[in-house]
Amino acid sequence: MGLGTLRTLMYWAIAGCCSKAATYPLEVVRRQLQMQVHTTKMSAAATFKKIVDQGGIPALYAGLIPSLLMVLPSSSISYFVYELMKIVLKVEPEQVFVSFFKRYTPCNELFGK
């Protein structure tokens, strides 16, 4: 964690916000699909088109700010703890990846097990 605590928290908060903003329109469509009655069920594409026709592109981002306020602390803290645990446990990410696949893949012969 050579970047420093505050900088790491800030970078991961920004990353969390970017990922939330990129996927938020899909969440809006998903919520609309869940609220539809079974007899008038539309496809995801038709639901997307209906949302844009009724409210324009901003309708796809309705409620984004409260969602971002939830993501900011959770993403920054979770990734900070991840980085901290890598230091505390003295484990490199590659070691974690390889040890996971040694343990949980049916192709253990690839990893020499």
UniProtKB/TrEMBL annotation:
<dbReference type="InterPro" id="IPR018108">
    <property type="entry name" value="MCP_transmembrane"/>
</dbReference>
<feature type="signal peptide">
    <location>
        <begin position="1"/>
        <end position="23"/>
    </location>
</feature>
<comment type="similarity">
    <text>Belongs to the mitochondrial carrier (TC 2.A.29) family.</text>
</comment>
<keyword id="KW-0732">Signal</keyword>
<dbReference type="GO" id="GO:0016020">
    <property type="term" value="C:membrane"/>
</dbReference>
<dbReference type="Pfam" id="PF00153">
    <property type="entry name" value="Mito_carr"/>
</dbReference>
<protein>
    <submittedName>
        <fullName>Mitochondrial carrier domain protein</fullName>
    </submittedName>
</protein>
<feature type="repeat" description="Solcar">
    <location>
        <begin position="3"/>
        <end position="88"/>
    </location>
</feature>
<keyword id="KW-0472">Membrane</keyword>
<dbReference type="InterPro" id="IPR023395">
    <property type="entry name" value="MCP_dom_sf"/>
</dbReference>
<keyword id="KW-0812">Transmembrane</keyword>
<keyword id="KW-0813">Transport</keyword>
<keyword id="KW-0677">Repeat</keyword>
